Amino acid sequence: MSGTGHTQYFAPPAPLAGGPRNLIGLSRAEMEEAVSALGEPDFRARQLWHWIYHRGATEFEAMTSLSKPFRSLLAKHFAADRPSIASAQISSDGTRKWLLRFPDGQEVETVFIPQEERGTLCISSQVGCTLTCRFCHTGTQRLVRNLSAAEIVSQIMLARDEVGEWPASSEDRKITNIVLMGMGEPLYNFENVAAAMKIAMDPEGLAFSRRKITLSTSGVVPMMARCGAELGVNLAVSLHAVRDEVRDAIVPLNKKYPIAELLDACRAYPGTHNARRITFEYVMLRGINDSVEDARALVELLKDIPAKVNLIPFNAWPGAPYECSKPKDIAVFSDTLFAAGVSAPVRAPRGRDILAACGQLKSASQRLKKSEREPATA
Prior knowledge:
By secondary structure, the protein is an alpha/beta fold.
């Protein structure tokens, strides 16, 4: 039990290292290669793709449109495995958080936030985080390793398992939106993130519109244009300050890519216009970034960028070095932006009682030695 939320723990399964090759995470071309290696024609790969990514099948025996000999062959050489669930928590507000364990024992957290008009799944891209943002609990857990494309896309698939949402084209979806706002900096693991999102966006795969996917970055400037060109997903930028000296302290990446350079990259982000704005995330820290002067400076910074600002009341965690801004200061900050024509809603905290709110995610995975930390591949 955690706060007023409910926690369920699961016994860890035996690791599968060295077992059958997992088909989850394979692109169409890679799946064709795998099937071809078994002496089967390309159309079998299309059938397999449909069963795995569209219908969510985990057992080859259930793939009834495939011949029995082919199913037996697949079972001998391959698997369609999800990560295991180490623990599952349900908040008093209905938010669900899963601690997922991979075969090497490393773990990440994935969060589902159900709302009346949408259901948002927050997924992770790294075990730990490359960055050390001071207000973020995940940032206190140093980078262990990148997640593979399989480990990223399987978070979506496991969540669909848990909410009973197969096939992928089912109407009245519970999971309508995907946000890469969990553990890790997605643009420091772009190859695997891109491979996973291409599966997520495939109309014969998980079938999410790119308009329903948002990638959040702390400002890895050199990768932002590539993300827009190759994926075309919505962009969210963790800004959190209007002056470099403040942002240097709370988002250390700013020392490498300062605010002016970051905003130039935002102006150039492909596909940005008034109907498709960049979201700027701004966590409200008492006495740090929450003055009326800060709000006015933010308006000036964003004056020529199609932008929306999400004001995020700071979600505390054990040992956090900051406090949340006072409600009246958050309200004044929001009103100042709205008065200047900048949309600035205050995000309602969700899942605080199970540490599932923004900035609270952290797994118990151990940091790997530098010599052991190799980027994961699909």
